[in-house]
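Anyone have tokens for Reactive intermediate/imine deaminase? Sequence:
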Amino acid sequence: MAKQIIHTDTAPAAVGPYSQAVAAGPGKTVYLSGQIGLEPGTGELVSENFEGQVRQSFANMQAVIEAAGGTLEHIVKLTLFLTDLSKFASANAIMADIIPQPFPARSTIGVASLPKGAQFEVEAVIVI
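Reply: yep, here.
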């Protein structure tokens, strides 16, 4: 899959590990539902720890991507949902450790609450 990173100096530079936009070549587009930090075996949150929930959310997302026949490199767009935007830097650091460069396009949204009391959710669009 060929993805082209779109960047312009006439818009603000990315303030974290993401690209302004990503254009994807021909292929199968897969829209992933949001993943929170649930352990697959129990359906319960991995922990009350924000970082643990972020890592489990990304692991769950990766499992769905692989089930669709893709890899993390196929991500063209991520949306992050945080119940506490003061933890934005922590989410950025974890994402930068997990998601390969060049980073996909991304939005981050502060929300009042998430299912099961989760503190973080991630959704993705991939092109295979």
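The helical segments are 50-67, 88-98.
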